[in-house]
Input
Amino acid sequence: MNLAGVLRAGARNRPDHPAIEWPGGHLSYEALWREVTLAASWLSGQGIGEGDRVGLCLREHPAHVVLHFAIPYLGAVLVPMDHRWTDGEKAATGSSMGVKLIVHESEAEPPQGLAGVALPAAWPASDEAPAMAEGGDQIWLVSLSSGTTGRPKGALVSHQQMLERFINQWVTLGFNVSDRFYAASPLYFGAGRSFAMCFLAAGATVVMSPPPQKPEQILSEVNDLAVTVAFLVPTSLRRIAPIAEGSDPAWPNLRRLVVSGEPLFPDEAALFRERLCPRLLAYYASSEGGGISVLQPEDFAEYSATVGRAGFRLEVEIVDAEGELLPPGETGRLRYRGPGLARAFIDEHGQRQDDSDGWFYPGDLASIDARGFVTLRGREKDVIIRGGVNIYPAEIERLLGRQPGVAEVAVIGRESEGRGQEVVAYFAGEAGAESLEAVCKAELAPYKVPAEFIGLPELPRAASGKIDKKALSGKAGVAKNRA
Output
């Protein structure tokens, strides 16, 4: 089935139900479907057809959502592009991904060497919509996992694979037709795009709150807009929780508060559940296959240091370097497979098919206990080898992250002549380096204790909102060296 066909079915079944709401306007499902067909006609008039790749370089507004269905309607392929990128970053992605046309805001220009068209103020009238493409195994999305490094790469996602991801979210996260979803994340990012489309495919209502937002705005809007499900990254929640006052959770009517993007520290998860919403879900996912595992609200008390258990119709395993299955509790390479996982990938060298028997390795080191709960130990590339011993940064980060006065923390390795690498901890907050060192000495093996603790006003972040560990190396701050 074509993804746009799922939306058409919702428009036929509940034509007057609110589909999208935003500051100053709304669209019913009937009106949304009309917008999609008009946008598809407009794209067709720009020369876009089956297999053509279209770059979307837009801010967050209803027309951006409409194009997420109009592009697959035609059998074309969406290439998401961040409107905040430089021209060089846009050009690198557009040329590497074979983009035929970039749709951009009226005040912007496409990067040199690539064709572009400005988003119209309104879709031109059309008496007849073009024929809808078949969909199914056709590719509709290049899900980028890198786009600003000069070496763009991405997973090629089909209509059917995306629909499977929606089904996973409906079952595992409990989304349904009656929900009102708070869309506060950029549509360029995988989670922002996937959740918005997932709720529309379910026939629910998407309530748009275009970023950037202040913490006070989000705190009030979730209640004022009668939101039932919200997705927010940990960085946002860390700014909202301290200003939530009162003895009761700030969002009593929220059915689901989904957090993803980076692991939560147990203590901060407890704070979010107490201050904001007890029905918190920690969602571990990747751009290549969507959701991997979920920590459900009832599991936080005992398993808050994990990322939960595998989602609906997903297999997750931990294997050694040779691909041999490891027993419960042992740390190794995490791999997973399921019906929503992409089977084809693209980078600057071209397109390639998956050759790992359906398994995908997201680059994480983890362990799984006997009950199926997954604990992330760190990224393969982030493992610190000190004196021949593997040290997993996530263990140290969890310890430091729950200390008073630590707002955020990141642990990296630094080259050392005598030991290969040394452990270095960067942190933001009011905590002192000496107190953090004392905690590490008390609770960690000596070889895991950081050689240096460096305090910064805030830790650098990549465009995705995650802490940028590459940017940390060599940063100066308030330091404490160990002998």
